[in-house]
UniProtKB/TrEMBL annotation:
UniProt-recorded name of the protein: Torsin-1A C-terminal domain-containing protein
Family of this protein: Belongs to the ClpA/ClpB family. Torsin subfamily.
GO biological process, one term: nuclear membrane organization
InterPro entries cross-referenced by the UniProt entry: ClpA/B, P-loop_NTPase, TOR1A_C, Torsin
Organism field: Dissostichus mawsoni
Signal peptide, first to last residue: 1-23
Start and end residues of each Torsin-1A C-terminal domain: 280-319
Lineage: Eukaryota, Metazoa, Chordata, Craniata, Vertebrata
One Gene Ontology cellular component: endoplasmic reticulum lumen
Annotated GO MF terms: ATP binding; ATP hydrolysis activity; kinesin binding
This protein's record includes keyword Nucleotide-binding: no
Length: 387
């Protein structure tokens, strides 16, 4: 018979060794038995120790910090009252359900730089102990993972296998699809079965997974609604989800470049929430800059925040933070123009990376720069604010 537990065998050997001798030293025997018992106890608890040292698909590593998510949405996300409420409600409701009927599917829409990627990061940070670095958080971008339209069928198969393999490994996996408006039509339909109300598919349950789609599609409709409220003299905080949800879903469904064009995900109502991200105003950019200065250990400077907001392209008549410059060509031209006019040493560069608004303020200190600012920034001459 082969012992099932190695530590049981070790215990047996320690206790029974020397059994053929005529006499056994009591002290030695007691020490041996004690060591064996201690070793057995350690090995019995070893799996739990391992779970704490290495990321595993367990509650120690994956559990919602609802308070943390709420605080992050309130203190770090500006100008997105609709998105904040929906995200908190959707994620907390889903994570508190031990037996959800389907995966959580969120579709985030709005112009580049309004906070879609940032919200995805906040969700990950408050669900996974390792945040975006978790091995259970997976990000797909069109240009990196699905660049060639001619290989669409191959991409479909690869995407299915990737999702199946990762959910098999951890039921609480998160999948983020960035740049949905650049996805090849039909690609996302290949994962439709995984988002549906199935108990299991080929022995795998997808009900506890989270899928997040990020897209610029629908930005025009969102901006138009916000502008209509402004023209009517109504505060933007009066805009509710009901004012945008149907309009947004139709705009995305009928847009050939949305990544969700005529998709069965919308047709079969598998998207749980269409989350609109409103265009930002001057005051929101100021809040963003102030918050980032504080987060990086610097004393918030209203004058710097004001300069950031003024240098970012805005539409005076509409008071909206204009992201028309977010198109690569126009954006690069805007950066070039700002670099030519350094505004007495303050070069403000709006860096949009992976759809996440990051107001990177490069403080290029020239001979006329303020000495106090020079001392505060004496290492590199640069500070980065506002994500």
């Amino acid at each position: 018979m082969v012992p099932k537990k190695p530590h049981a065998l070790l215990l047996w050997m320690l206790v029974c060794s020397g059994g053929s001798t005529e006499a056994i030293e009591p002290i030695s025997t007691s020490i041996a038995v004690g060591m064996a018992a201690a070793l057995t106890g350690f090995l019995a608890t070893y799996p739990n120790i391992f779970y704490y040292l290495n990321e595993c698909c367990r509650p120690e590593w994956i559990s919602l910090n609802k308070t943390g998510l709420q605080v992050d949405l309130e203190r770090k996300l500006f100008g997105q009252h609709i998105a904040s409420r929906i995200i908190l409600k959707a994620v907390s409701g889903f994570m508190s359900n031990d037996n959800p009927k389907k995966p959580l599917v969120l579709s985030l829409h709005g112009w580049t730089g309004t906070g879609k990627n940032f919200v995805s990061q906040l969700i990950a940070d408050n669900v996974y102990k390792e945040g975006m670095d978790s091995s259970f958080v997976h990000i797909f971008t069109s240009e990196l993972h699905f660049p060639h339209a001619s290989q669409l069928e191959t991409y479909k198969s690869q995407l299915q296998q990737w999702i199946k393999g990762n959910v098999t490994n951890c039921a609480h996996s998160m999948f983020i699809f960035d740049e949905m408006d650049k996805m090849h039509p039909g690609l996302i339909d290949s994962i439709k079965p995984y988002l549906d109300y199935y108990d299991k598919l080929d022995g795998v349950s997808y009900r506890k997974a989270i899928f997040i789609f990020l897209s610029n599609a629908g930005g025009e409709s969102i901006t138009k609604t916000a502008l209509d409220f402004w023209k009517a003299g109504r505060d933007r905080e009066e805009i509710e989800l009901k004012d945008l949800e149907t309009l947004l879903s139709l705009a995305v469904f009928n847009n050939k470049k949305s990544g969700l064009w005529h998709t069965s995900l919308i047709d079969k109502s598998l998207v749980d929430f269409f989350v609109p991200f409103l265009p930002l105003e001057y005051r929101h950019v100021v809040q963003c800059a102030m918050a980032e200065m504080l987060a990086r250990g610097h004393q918030p400077d209203p004058s710097v925040a004001d300069q950031v907001a003024r240098d970012v392209s805005t539409s005076p008549k509409q008071r909206e933070f204009s992201l028309q410059n977010s198109q690569p060509k126009d954006y690069r031209e805007g950066v070039r123009l700002m670099e030519e006019d350094s505004l007495s040493g303050l070069v403000v560069m709006l860096r949009i990376s992976a759809g996440l608004l990051k107001c990177s303020i490069s403080l290029t200190l020239n001979s006329e720069a303020d000495e106090g600012l020079q001392r505060q920034n004496n290492k590199t001459g640069k500070l980065s604010f506002c994500k």
